[in-house]
Amino acid sequence: MVNLPRFRRRGLLLSLLATTATLSACQRGSRSEQPSGQDPATQTRSSVLLINGAGATFPAPLYLRWFADYRQVDPQLEVNFQPVGSAAGIRQFIDTTVDFAASDVAMTDAEIAEVARGVVMIPMTAGSIAVGYNLPGIPSGLKLSRSVLVDIFRGRITAWRDPQILALNPDLDLPDLPIEVCHRSDGSGTTDTFTRHLAAIDPTWESEIGVGMSLEWPVGIGVKGNEGMSAQMLLSEGVIGYVESVYARDLDLSVAALENRSGQFILPTPTSSALALQEIELPENLRAFIPDPAGTEAYPIVTYTWILAYRQYPDPDMAAALREVLSWALTHGQTLAEELGYLPLSETVVARSLEAVQLIQS
User: Fold this and answer.
1) What is the pTM of this model?
2) Neighbours of 63 (CB within 10 A)
3) Fewer beta carbons within 10 Å, N or C terminal of the chain?
4) Binning pLDDT at 50, 70 and 90, where does residue 115 land?
5) Regarding beta strands 239-244 and 180-184, do their DSSP bridges make them parallel or antiparallel, or are they unpaired?
6) Distance between CA 94 and CA 115 in Å, rounded?
7) What are the domain boundaries of the chain?
């Protein structure tokens, strides 16, 4: 398969910056592979079947591309996905106003109990959360220790030339600018992953500020979506925020080298993020997190991201089609995930996710 050119990846992300509520997954298509073992329902369908989903912005560039490319496999299936944030996606899924949802945080037992049709949680891909910033003349690689990272997002360090930041970066000519903290205002799985890490490295964070998809931040301005966070960092000098690494990479945002548990300062590369992901052991329900990986070369903030499907669908065609498109994404689509900057799933995780897909029935 031909690699997706960088300018096309950037174009998709810029389109996400422009609009997040009306994006359709039928924008592009380039693949023609046919999945093996196609369900009879998808072979005999004579009219276009529409499947609607909503949720996480973290994997949105990948999901939009997957669902668009799948039109070449099954022209009679259209999968629309609206990147509205993990919390909104879960809420719509519980309310049964969508056919599936996407979240960077697996549903809780209490949330699952609200869904009479049952829930299947399927890890589809993974990625890292970058801490990005906009500082004139300062490229990626600004070192932020664990204590400095927490103190910035708590509002205790308020200037880029703070002695603690200068001591970590003696070779950088940091500008005399105030720090403008940016955080998500919507219910966000990216926020959940980021604040889990802050709580893991600072014992007081969880008790005094909190962990979750939305919370009351002690400082900063709120924006919606990874695309909103990216736009804020592109437009405003002095900003620091957290964003899925694909957005940072393809929009050329500067990102910090974060201190990991071993005391090493690590950039969010595919290699360093994959090392962290290897430490996650998925339980039977496929719900697991790693807020502070131990590996010497591991980047410290990574997460899986899940598709949430119902166990029972009233329409057999929809159940069959959803099984097929998700199975295709977990097999053929993993190569595309890597090209777009996400972390491809291991063979073991792919096998377990494919088993979960088969739980989708009518």
Assistant:
1) 0.87
2) 26
3) N
4) very high
5) parallel
6) 6
7) 6-127+303-357, 129-280+288-301
CATH superfamily of 129-280+288-301: Periplasmic binding protein-like II (3.40.190.10)
* Closest C-alpha to 229, from 220, 242, 245, 212: 242
Q: Nearest CA to 325 among 51, 121, 46?
A: 51
Residue 74 token pair: 């099954």
Instruction: Return all residues near 60 (Cβ < 8 A) that are at least 6 apart.
Output: 16, 20, 23, 81, 83, 102, 226, 227
* Residue 319 contacts residue 361 (beta carbons within 8 Å): yes
Is-contact 292 201, C-beta < 8 A? yes
With H, G, I as helix, E, B as strand and everything else as coil, classify residue 80: strand
Q: In terms of Cα–Cα distance, which of 251, 244, 205 is closest to 342? A: 244
pLDDT of 121 strictly over 70: yes
- State the Cα–Cα distance between residues 282 and 349, nearest whole angstrom: 8
Q: Which residues pair with 265 in a beta bridge?
A: 259
